[in-house]
Amino acid sequence: MIKQFIYLLMLCQVFLSCQVLRTTYDVTEGTVKATYNVTKFTAKTAYSAGKLIYIVGGFTFKVVAAPLSWPLTRQEIETIDGLPPKEAIRQGKVKKSPYVVRGKRYVPMSVEQARHYRETGIASWYGYETYRQKDGHMTANGEAFDPNGLNAAHKYLPLPSFVKVTNLENRRSIILRVNDRGPFVEGRIIDLSAGAARKLGFYDKGTAQVRVEIYEGKG
Asked: 16, 61, 104, 184: most buried, per Cβ within 10 A?
């Protein structure tokens, strides 16, 4: 009886620390249409305690809140929702809030608008300087930036969003978590982390022609 009780207790701990969400994505014609299992849980091991883990379409995303003392990856952001960027992040006012870069005001899509998003254009990658600087960097929604992760920056999608990015030059596709703003370079539609650029095969080249489409609108 004691052994059975201990076994049941262990099962309870597993289920309490892991929440499985079965979500159906029925996006508009021309975008991704399928049913996926999305697993979301908070890691409780000593190595990764406090990390929020998403498993989306077979890709794993580790989300960690960055200390407010860390610099932004996009230090050119002047205000978010009319507030200093870190104050807006502290108040959680970044998901769809307008923001200003070099005097230009950007207005992100609503969640409803994002469900219809699909675009073809030039992707680049960013974050090289973060490899050489002490401590970490903070994305525009307050997450720790992982230059080796599967992350991306977009000027208009709600933060965070998941997108499917396809390199049209080699047909490779991956799922990325949009958690930052940018790129603020004319003619580019999305900035990827170095790790994502490697997986899509354009790290050395620097840019690629890609298709970006919403993968799941849940934030």
From this structure: 61
